[in-house]
């Protein structure tokens, strides 16, 4: 990267965001990809695919993402030039992982779906999460079903009392599955509701960087 460009980007604080959860299928990879797309609009960003299943790598390979996706072995080199970094991780965190992950980033984002199973899994880990300071992590409600379901509101009420929950949340939209299949961010998907998906992650991104 040319020096002038690098100096310009240095004005904005670097941000390392790790997306993690205690359960699979809660939209970690989808969240990592879209937060990286959001950050990339501000400054060059790369995504570290820390999941041995390499879902984010596959996403990038199937199509085109507006940022670089690398694995842990290449991460150090990109960290030198790219101000922002998003790290996608595998599910099944244990206590020690959580602390190590939190130490290695500026913010841990923990997505959860609003269903009973996912909420139980999260509540069981509240004790572990309480060992972190509230500034180290945020919980994100994701894959929220449309009305008349009240799952999103109920989950919010349940979580809000004990956990640092993001005000913004992400709706359940088929456009996200289409995006993963096509290897693009949701805003590039040809679907009448795709823009809602991008709006949701824009809100999440703004709230995180605030
Ligand atoms: N907001 C959403 N609406 C609908 N489907 C979603 C949404 N977010 C993720 N998905 C889908 O849910 C599944 C799990 O998401 P993924 O991001 O792979 O989760 P994880 O990385 O936690 O396993 C995928 O099929 C993905 O396309
Ligand atoms: Mg994943």
Low-confidence segments = none
What amount of the residues lies in strands? Answer: 15-25%
What is the CATH topology assignment? Rossmann fold
Per CATH, the architecture is: 3-Layer(aba) Sandwich
The radius of gyration computed from the alpha-carbon positions, rounded to a whole number of angstroms, is 16 Å
Q: Which short descriptors sum up this protein?
A:
single chain, 210 residues, alpha/beta, Rossmann fold, six-stranded parallel beta sheet, binds adenosine-5'-diphosphate, binds magnesium ion
Characterise the protein shown here:
This protein has 210 residues and is of the alpha/beta class. The chain has one domain (3-198): P-loop containing nucleotide triphosphate hydrolases (Rossmann fold), CATH 3.40.50. Helices cover 45% and strands 15% of the residues. It has a six-stranded parallel β-sheet, sandwiched between helices. Strand 2 (45-50), helix 3 and strand 3 (68-71) form a beta-alpha-beta unit. The longest helix is centred in the last third of the chain and has 16 residues, at 194-209. The protein is globular, with a radius of gyration of 16 Å. The model has no long low-confidence stretch (mean pLDDT 92). Residues 21, 24-30, 55, 142-143, 170-173, 176-177, 180 line the site of adenosine-5'-diphosphate (ADP).
């Amino acid at each position: 990267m040319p020096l002038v460009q690098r100096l310009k980007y240095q004005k904005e604080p670097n941000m390392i965001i790790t997306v993690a959860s205690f359960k699979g299928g809660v939209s970690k990879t989808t969240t990592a990809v879209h937060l990286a797309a959001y950050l990339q609009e501000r400054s060059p960003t790369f995504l570290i695919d820390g999941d041995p299943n390499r879902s984010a790598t596959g996403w990038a390979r199937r199509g085109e993402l507006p940022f670089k996706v690398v694995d842990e072995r290449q991460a150090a080199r990109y960290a030198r030039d790219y101000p922002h970094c998003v790290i996608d991780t595998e599910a099944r965190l244990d206590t020690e992982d959580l602390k190590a992950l939190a130490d290695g980033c500026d913010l841990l984002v923990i997505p959860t779906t609003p269903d009973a199973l996912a909420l139980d899994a999260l509540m069981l880990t509240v004790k572990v999460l309480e060992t972190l300071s509230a500034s180290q992590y945020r919980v994100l409600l994701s894959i929220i079903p449309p009305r008349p379901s009240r799952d999103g509101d109920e989950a919010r009420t349940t979580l809000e009392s004990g956990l640092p929950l993001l005000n913004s949340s992400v709706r359940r939209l088929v456009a996200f599955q289409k995006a993963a299949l096509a290897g693009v961010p949701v805003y590039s998907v040809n679907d009448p509701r795709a823009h809602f998906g991008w709006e949701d992650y824009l809100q999440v991104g703004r709230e995180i960087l605030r």
